[in-house]
């Protein structure tokens, strides 16, 4: 597997990249090659006084690359200029990446937590599965909030094609997953359909065959609120959800359940979008 690791070379990014447990989790799910990417904003020019951003970022990436190479990964570095989420998505498509990883400061003091603009825009537009890796908000020496990325997974499903695609990610996540909680939030569409308890039980059986300890939850209410309530109860290391894709309307509007989860979850989020189009 090939992963894009997007970094702004901040202390938070350094904490994530130098965490050996996180890197081991990536190896467990099959990641062999990592493309380290940092983006120089297009409004910052090399000719500005005191600016050598490309050179500084190349040196910073080289340090991160050494850490990852020592951990056993093949590493390529990319310093590019432009709009971060567009350039990250572009590189992901070019190298045929299997996932993108981006750090995000967690647990904002604001009542309604918001994530950084790059993580938010990637959640709306990513072309490959996106791991939003939560970093604590400490100013000096931040640490990742959950070292074992996929050890305990909360999987949210509405039984749609998007959700089924996300569940398929367990085919490789299972190598790093020990426990899973499967949650469905009832909606009017459930009327006349197969009992969601039975459908969750079928999914749970698949995971238990892979020696993943699994429990199921059926909730009632606002989907995002209920999924986040379960996250608070079971404290997963990562919440796994599907995304509906990259329409122009979605890029202009917030509010989908998956974007709510990415923005408000306390822990890591693994977002699985529709497959690439040719």
UniProtKB/TrEMBL annotation:
Coiled-coil parts of chain: none
Pfam families: Usp
Entry-linked InterPro entries: Rossmann-like_a/b/a_fold, Universal_stress_UspA, UspA
UspA domain location: 2-132, 150-273
Family: Belongs to the universal stress protein A family.
The protein's name: Nucleotide-binding universal stress protein, UspA family
UniProt source species: Halomicrobium zhouii
Source species taxonomy: Archaea, Methanobacteriati, Methanobacteriota, Stenosarchaea group, Halobacteria
